[in-house]
Write a structure and sequence with these properties.
The protein is of the alpha/beta class. It has 21 helices and 17 strands. 54% of the residues are buried.
């Protein structure tokens, strides 16, 4: 706690985990309280058929609104909203609720009971399934509000730019934020790679998560938020605001003036490219300085489908992304489903730990036709184009998996690669690179599996910080393997969106950095201000640390 000498005002500093860089000063606002009801006051009905129909209508209305919002969103926001729409219309949830109605409960009581049953099940499953509890409760709140004729819960529209404070935030709410009005986000829960943080990064909203003590800060309080430092200053002194904003504006001006390509001050080349999920996202990225696409997530056309999309349907969607970058590299990631992103048309048995279960390439190992048809669709989308798409598989764990995938991709004239998300793959990167032409490191999952910590757990957010030295050692080892065999090694996880960490990754020998499009200019501008020698010194310094804060400080001492 610090005290201003001029105004005798008290300023309190709260420290959390950095999620999205940026500095903003604004008053605090908080979400509108959600509708809370006592299920016992909504438990006796006589017309059970009518009550069941009322519930279905409410669920249908909520699902429709979420789908409409998904249609107007892109990237991770669209995926989350689509998944929540599917949750609102989930037949299993509705069946459990209707059974409660058949036993005499009202629609409200039945919705609450079904949600608690599913929340308990998801929590017991753990891993990424436990993450869905926040989404599940959010969907239930919306359905209950619809049943009661109350306003749909969410974020109020402030009269002036504000910083949103919340214990946690449903991704559906985050996806609807207006970055011109919600200029900062701080949460007492959440992790730096949660859906909420990823969407905030896509929207360009500075964000800090895991901030202890934040719950006691009332709405209307003046705040200074530093997303890169993970700091929230309550009742800041005018001098502190002026100094922080001046430094941030200078960095923002450098970023705004950066037009690419990615290169350090002394001419070392590092591609700075974008993560996208659909054609709209790719077109938005191409209007900025991103040089290409380093991660095209293809899940959107598979999720919320009762049947597998045809080759022609997939090809149409893929072509939209390729059209946005006709003369540049586009890296397509094959279907990364399973775990928290189940496929209705490819069901499999419930697993005690889905995050360690059948997901990514493991789904296609059970049904190779899904992969073959997706690769055929990429070929169809790329027909007649000068640039051959690069294609990579998620959740590769062994050299044998890489060999099998590489052969399928090469047979179709495409460029094969794999994701490095599993520590085993990082340790055997050189052997894996014998069978493919490139690798791309997904730091979100790599941190989760390295630290044995669910990346969506608010209690474990510090463990999944991408600055964890153990994770960075694996990244460095993978980059070194690529240098030994002369093949490119990219990073497409959220670590690539951190300008300071991006310089460290370049120092390891990473050849491309792929981030959400709004993060690209800041990353490129930071690289342009340093030499590769400084990046290498920072990288070596980081590897001598034992905790994330020390790693950040070590890099900053050299690169600032």
């Amino acid at each position: 706690m610090t005290r201003s000498s001029s105004e005798n005002a008290v300023s309190t500093v709260f420290i959390g985990t950095p999620a999205v860089p940026g500095v903003v000063a604004a008053p605090a606002i908080r979400p509108v309280p959600r509708v809370r009801v006592d299920s016992e006051n909504h438990s006796a009905v006589t017309d059970r058929a009518r009550e069941s129909e009322v519930l279905r209508q409410a669920a249908t209305m909520v699902a429709q609104r979420l789908r409409e919002r998904a249609a107007n969103a892109t990237g991770a926001a669209a995926e989350v909203l689509s998944a929540n729409a599917a949750m609102a219309a989930d037949p299993g949830w509705l069946a459990v609720a209707e059974k409660s109605i058949a036993d005499g409960d009202s629609a409200v009581a039945a919705a609450l009971a079904a949600t608690e049953q599913f929340a308990t099940m998801f929590t017991n499953l753990g891993g990424l399934m436990a993450e869905r509890v926040t989404d599940l409760r959010d969907v239930c709140d919306r359905i209950v509000a619809e049943l009661l004729g109350a306003p749909e819960p969410g974020i109020p529209t402030p009269a002036e730019p504000s910083i949103l404070l919340a214990a946690d935030l449903a991704p559906a709410d985050t996806a609807g934020l207006d970055p011109n009005l919600i200029v900062g986000l701080a949460m007492s829960l959440g992790g730096p790679t949660s859906h909420t943080a990823i969407i905030a990064r896509q929207l360009g909203i500075p964000c800090v998560v895991g901030v202890e003590g934040l719950d006691d800060v009332p709405a209307g309080t003046d705040l200074l938020l530093d997303g890169a430092a993970g700091r929230v200053l309550v009742s800041p002194e005018p001098e502190a605001i002026a100094a922080a904003l001046t430094g941030h504006r200078a960095a923002a001006e450098r970023a705004a003036g950066w037009t690419g390509p990615g290169v350090t001050a002394d001419g070392h080349r590092v591609e700075v490219i974008a993560n996208v999920q659909d054609g709209a996202g790719a077109r938005a990225a191409s209007s900025g300085p991103a040089e290409g696409i380093g991660l095209f997530r293809t899940e959107l056309c598979f999720l919320d489908r009762e049947s597998e999309p045809t080759v022609a349907e997939q090809a149409t969607l893929y072509a939209e992304v390729l059209d946005a970058y006709p003369d540049a590299k586009v890296v397509v990631r094959t279907l990364d489903a399973g775990s928290d992103k189940p496929l209705r048309f490819a069901p499999h048995a419930d697993e005690p730990n889905p995050a360690l279960g059948v997901r990514g390439i493991r789904i296609t190992a059970r049904d190779t036709g899904i992969l073959d048809r997706q690769l055929d669709a990429v070929v169809a989308a790329a027909k007649g184009r000068a640039h051959v798409p690069w294609v990579m598989a998620p959740m590769i764990s062994t050299a044998a998996e890489a060999k099998s995938f590489g052969a399928r991709v090469r047979a179709r004239g495409l460029v094969p690669g794999v994701m490095i998300e599993v520590p085993a793959a990082a340790l055997l990167a050189e052997a894996i690179l014998e069978h493919v032409d490139f690798v791309s490191i997904g730091t979100n999952d790599l941190a989760q599996y390295t630290m044995a910590a669910d990346r969506m757990s608010p209690q474990l957010a510090a463990l999944t910080d991408p600055w964890q030295p153990a994770v960075l050692h694996l990244v460095a080892a993978t980059a070194a393997a690529g240098q030994r065999v002369g093949k490119p090694v990219g990073v497409c996880g959220e670590a690539a969106a951190d300008p300071l960490l991006a310089c460290v990754l370049a120092g390891f020998g990473v050849t491309s950095l792929s981030a959400a499009a709004p993060a690209v200019p800041a990353v490129g501008a930071r690289l342009a201000a340093v030499t590769i020698a400084d990046c290498r010194r920072a990288a070596a310094s980081v590897l001598s640390t034992t905790d994330p804060r020390s790693a950040r400080e070590a890099a900053a001492r050299i690169l600032s």
